[in-house]
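INFO worker-7 received task bundle
INFO bundle size: 2
INFO processing item 0
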Amino acid sequence: MSNLNHPSVMRVRAWLAQAGSTAEVIELNETARSAQDAADSIGTELGSIVKSLVFAVAGKPVMALVAGDRQCDTQALAAALAAALGGAGKAKRADADLVREATGFAIGGVAPVAHERNLPIVIDASLGRFTTVYAAAGHPYCVFATSLAELARLTGAEVREDIAKTG
């Protein structure tokens, strides 16, 4: 069976179509479980990979979409989402159970769209270095290509300069 027919991938494909996106899900021959794996499988720069990172801020799940060659600045993330969450708190990496509960996806295939819950999301502006960026599509062997502008439109997220850092 093709991974394109996996229920999580089908959910992402349907969500993209309903949102008016022309993005197509790409099935890879190699895993995209990590940003480096995805970049190697696609043959693209690490920075063009969108990491969909789930954190808990003030006990509520949130998402940061960060370039593959950057790290999320958790203090900046918490501050960026303070208003949406009714106050600031510390951002802590979500465990696998919270990731699945909030998004409906398992770690390694968390898409930036088609979540089980409506999550506050922010996007790392450094993804704008690339014409095309690649995001997980619900399975470790599936991604979809998009642009920073379309990713912002699809997620309703704010693009921020301060939520990611190098190294």
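INFO item 0 finished
INFO processing item 1
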Amino acid sequence: MHAEPSTLSAPAAANVGTAVLAKTWRWCIFAGLLAVVLAGCATPPPADDPEAVADFKQTNDPLEPTNRVFYTINNGLDTVILKPAAQAYRFILPSPVRNGVHNALTNLGSPVALTNDVLQARPRRAGDTAMRFLINSTVGVLGVFDVATDWGYPVHDTDFGMTLANWGVSEGPFLYLPVLGPSNPRDTVGFGMDMAFDPFTWVGHTPGMQEFGWARTGLNALDARERYLDPIDQIKKTALDPYATFRSLYRQHRQGEITKMRNDDRATIPVWFPQPAAPAAR
């Protein structure tokens, strides 16, 4: 039976009110961002300039004015907060410890990776991910040591954005999102779906798990930023237009990973299974 409003306890009523308030704020933020986006579209070049039109389509960045605003905001946050934190992280922890943290974080993402491998219809990749999780969670001490790679199960990038690409969903226009950085509509949807696939999303309200989730998110951000400290610094120092450079590199990287996934048609027989003997030469 459904409880009448008058029978709700004070804690329950507070939880309901908090949920409604949070949902309201999310919709307000979404509406505000949508208004900014619609107001910040780039003006297409005139049709009588075919070269400019071709370049506009190739760039595929119709929201460039808004994207550049968000890039400027993100760059400021990175300069003030994330980059100094990543530099301190590198200074305090030696490389072997940082590698162990990276390995453990990668291992925690294995359930999401396995889900996408299956949805992409890549059984050998799914097998690699499952074996990596089993081996590294046990022999690798909760994923701190990447034993699986040495045993013939290499790591690979995968996410729901790549899953959508595998089934023919186009990327859409380039986006530069607040906090998240370079993206597109397909990868933005993929990011949300990967969060839904993550088992820790569903246990985040149990005692201690919320703190674990925040710690994991923070470590993921630190780990990623530290690993790209030098390349990002080099781009910002040498590129005439860092925004355009990051846009191009993001697209190249994503297309490269998608192509690699699509071309991964390895046989499903594991490397340790006896292989059929090659026919003798005549």
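INFO item 1 finished
INFO post-check item 1: DSSP finds 13 helices and two strands in the chain.
INFO post-check item 1: The CA atoms of residues 208 and 214 lie 10 Å apart.
INFO worker-7 idle
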